[in-house]
Design a protein that fits this description.
Number of helices: 16
Shape: globular
Number of strands: 13
Strand order of the largest sheet: 1-7-6-5-4-2-3
CATH architecture of the largest domain: 3-Layer(aba) Sandwich
CATH superfamily of the largest domain: Type I PLP-dependent aspartate aminotransferase-like (Major domain)
CATH topology of the largest domain: Aspartate Aminotransferase, domain 2
Radius of gyration: 23 Å
Structural class: alpha/beta
Bound molecules: pyridoxal-5'-phosphate
Distance between the termini: 11 Å
CATH class of the largest domain: Alpha Beta
Order of helices and strands: HHHEHEHEHEHEHEEHEEHEEHEEHHHHH
Largest sheet: 7 strands, mixed
Strand content: 5-15%
Length: 486
Amino acid sequence: MTTIPKRGLETEELFRRLEAFRKDDVNWRDGRVWAYVYDPGAEAEAVIKRAYTLYLGENALDPTAFPSGMYLENELVAMAAAHLRGDANVVGNFTSGGTESILCAVKAARDFARANRPKATKPHVLLPTTAHAAFHKACHYLDVDVKLVPVDPKSFRADPRAMREAADENTILMVGSAISYAHGVVDPIRELGEIALEKNLLFHVDGCMGGFLLPYFRRLGAPVPDFEFHVPGVTSISMDFHKYAFAAKGASVILYRSADVRKYQMYACANWTGYTVINPTVQSTKSVGPLAAAWAVLNHFGDEGYLAIARQVLDATRRIADAVEAMPDLRLLGRPDMNLVAFASDSVSVFHVIDEMKLRGWYIQPQLGYGSSRENIHLSIMPSNVRWVDAMLADLRECVEKARAMKSGELAAKIHAAFGNVDPASISDETIRGLLAMTGAAGNALPERMAEVNEVLNALPVPIREKLLVGYLNTLYRQPEGGSDA
Ligand SMILES: *Cc1c(COP(=O)(O)O)cnc(C)c1O
């Protein structure tokens, strides 16, 4: 068992061990990972680290003791509001990420409805099927229902007609994305805004991914639809600094058109014996480090710096989208509005393509089939990826060729036969263990090839997928065998 060591370690030894823990991580520094890490380059990284550590110990819990935290937060909110064409009435808060920003927006909507919408007796959030999972999570945590509305099956944009039909007196919040994660497209925010005004709904635009970069793409001439606060009907927007503003992880912002709605996001507690708790967001004790790092990176690059980055990324994305479209075995799912690209195949298994690409040193993301969106490959094109575009596309062509000769579909057929009509509630832990064994993911380590795991997941009905994933996660997080110094 791992225990706290009796004696402290020598600093060098301690860091040697910390470095060693990373040996199996994806190597994002070489620029061949097309997800997860938003690498701003060495110079910006040094600035970010210095700012982060400068404020590491300061606590944003109490703005009277640490006005620096609140000052940085108000500066970041102001820059975000101006970037998203908000006026002086826009208010907001800094959060740890998109998920927390979205949780705050749903919490504000729920409590706003409790105070102002007595008819909403069974409140729900109205979501296009492409809305981020974070909304489902927020509704799950806050005990609010989700009402899902299918999107246009070709463009993968929200369908305003279907959204209008689905909205009713129990709708406490409507959501649109700019951009959606899966397909990288902007929903018709103007049309949705009209519905929000007509039906008197709160309307959140999820700009976690796109909020920061889209305005730069527009300035470069890309046809980016309006999604910001100048669109009538938009009442809140979330935007992550830790994506395309390249801030250190733990940096997002939630903005509201006015303070009347935002007040329902806040929390105070004087109903105990300790210090008075006043929290605008989820965290209470909170390092000022991420705030300082976000402020530093915005001031490091400046508007011109970001525009220059956007130019490179836009060009690389166009080259990739065009190349994918030209490959006979592949087709784009939607035409990307930013730099996130999804593509599927009707002739080869994309899961095999992903495994083959991994063998060649590329890390690319699978997305499972859902509704009209069949299983696909997702690329986020980062500045660090730009110099690799041609090499990646060449390997992609070859890996698609290789995948053509590989078996797939047999597991899926078995899964369909076994689980197609099963009630998810009747699935036992035993069955889940059996399924895990079938995928080869039963032990502690992940299997070398993930195609089988992905094929099984892809074939399972969604509620069983979720059960399987929870079962798996519950086996993954456990005490390390042999202790941390093994
Ligand atoms: C990343 C993302 C989120 C969630 O943000 P986290 O920072 O991962 O919590 C929400 N919406 C969209 C569109 C995203 O891309």
